[in-house]
Amino acid sequence: MSAIPAVRRFLLPEVAERLRTSTRQVLRMISTGDLRAINCGLGKKRPRWVIDQSDLEEFERRRSTGPATKVPSKRRAREAVPNYFG
After folding, report:
1. What is the rounded average pLDDT of the residues 65-77?
2. Angstrom distance (rounded) from CA 36 to CA 53
3. Contacts of 75 (CB under 8 A, 6+ apart)
4. Alpha helices, DSSP H only, in 33-77?
């Protein structure tokens, strides 16, 4: 008999702390579908949201940015200006 691997699950306050935001913002991310969550509460009256570690890592991966790329300057290079006064 093989053991079922343990899946780490997070509650709203833990996710909010990890993402450095409020629980209200995490609820907004769940309602818009940006962050997958499981309602293990009493339906719509008393929801209790649980977020799997894999879903949270996927969300963070989608939201992360890569290294900054150097944007070429739009300024023209200065041409040599002759010095008439010296």
Report:
1. 75
2. 10
3. none
4. 53-63
Higher pLDDT, 70 or 28: 28
Q: Name the residue with higher pLDDT: 17 or 82.
A: 17
Token digits for 61? Answer: 């991966």
pLDDT tops 70 at residue 5: no
Which of 62, 59, 52 has the alpha carbon at shortest distance from 11? Answer: 52
CA gyration radius, the chain: 25
Name residues whose C-beta falls within 8 Å of residue 40's C-beta, 6 or more positions apart in sequence: 48, 49, 50
Q: Which tokens in the block code for residue 29?
A: 């991310």
